[in-house]
Design goal:
Structural class: alpha+beta
Radius of gyration: 19 Å
Number of strands: 7
Strand content: 5-15%
Largest sheet: 5 strands, antiparallel
Shape: globular
Number of helices: 15
Strand order of the largest sheet: 1-5-4-3-2
Helix content: 40-55%
Distance between the termini: 32 Å
Order of helices and strands: EHEEEEHHHHHEEHHHHHHHHH
Length: 307
DNA sequence: TCCCAGGGCATCA
DNA sequence: TGATGCCATGGG
């Protein structure tokens, strides 16, 4: 039975795009409760102002098609969703610039071929990105997604469609009303519960927004601003800037996966080899976060053998 | 059992 | 911008 489609739109892609890599990334074995992956599309809920939407997103090499399922969206909501998808899939980057730098590196040049067309997957919602970092600090990803799901199912809005629920990440306003004990019961540590509620207050009071971060002059100032907030250290600040604000030079130094990938490629001696790490990244000015993303990618097996 | 997970902070020197 | 202990729990 065909789903009723109330509106559809398409976004052209700037250059090469490997849609199978994107789908693989979104469905790589973790239980992310923010979307549902089908063989050829992703379905998720998106809110703009007071419009609650459910969309199917069909990625293909030349374009991404979007279909609205629940109701006809307003013009502003359409524009918001298109911008959201462009940021989520990083459709505006010119990957050739990155591949040019990769080609000059003897032990990393293979990535431009093996992961050709892989685009940096972002996290457009800044509050979600920070909350996700707080949750994920120093615990394994499986457990982190488990906690995230509990938080989302308890405090987030949801849409019921075709027998499934589609969730929105909780607003800061919803988390402000959570108690430490309630988050502790969801297996947050005491500190993480404190951090998250405090950060929700910062968002609700609009002392922390994407616009404020964009207004700051450079990466150094943005890092300093973020790390002045309790619970946000260097790793979280860099991760958030690259995932949510498309900061091209963000490097989550100290990241366990990043260090493992660098050691695996024999690019650093050990996890304390800061100079070795800076030496690698100095070759990728303006594309540091892309290198991080590709190094993370290299830790996982290929999605299909014939790739 | 022990160690490590997509860290950060308090404390001590 | 030193080193160490602690937090929470699950998987290898």
């Amino acid at each position: 039975l065909e789903a009723q489609i109330y509106y559809s739109a398409e976004i052209p892609v700037n250059g090469i795009f490997n849609e199978r890599e994107s789908l693989w990334f979104l469905n790589r074995g973790y239980d992310d409760c923010m979307y549902r992956v089908f063989t050829d599309k992703i379905r998720r809920a998106i809110r703009y102002d007071n419009e609650l939407m459910l969309v199917d997103i069909y990625p293909s090499p030349q374009r991404i098609n979007i279909c609205w399922l629940i109701a006809k969206p307003s013009e502003k909501a359409i524009a918001y969703v298109l911008d959201f998808v462009v940021n989520w899939f990083d459709l505006e980057a010119d990957l050739n610039r990155f591949y040019y730098l990769l080609a000059k590196h003897p032990s990393l040049s293979y990535m431009a071929v093996k992961y050709n067309g892989l685009r940096f997957m972002g996290m457009p919602d800044l509050f979600e990105a920070i909350a996700w970092c707080i949750i994920g600090q120093q615990i394994n990803l499986t457990f982190a997604y488990k906690i995230k799901r509990k938080l989302v199912e308890r405090f987030g809005e949801k849409i019921s469609y075709d027998g499934e629920y589609y969730h929105l990440f909780p607003s800061a306003g919803a988390i402000v009303n959570a108690g430490i004990e309630e988050l502790r019961a969801m297996q947050f540590s005491e500190k993480k519960a404190e951090y998250l509620i405090n950060i929700a207050h910062e968002f609700k009071a609009e002392r922390l927004t994407k616009e404020i971060l964009r207004t700051l002059p450079d990466l150094t100032h943005r890092l300093k601003f973020l790390t002045s907030i309790r619970g946000i250290g260097s790793w979280t600040a860099n991760y958030v800037l690259m995932k949510s604000l498309k900061e091209p030079s963000g490097i989550p130094l100290g990241d366990a996966g990043l260090l493992n990938a660098l050691i695996k490629h024999d690019l650093i001696r050990d996890k304390n080899d800061i100079e070795g790490m800076m030496s690698i990244f100095s070759r990728f000015k303006g594309w540091e976060s892309y290198l991080v993303f590709y190094l993370w990618r290299s830790l996982a097996p290929m999605p299909e053998a014939e790739n």
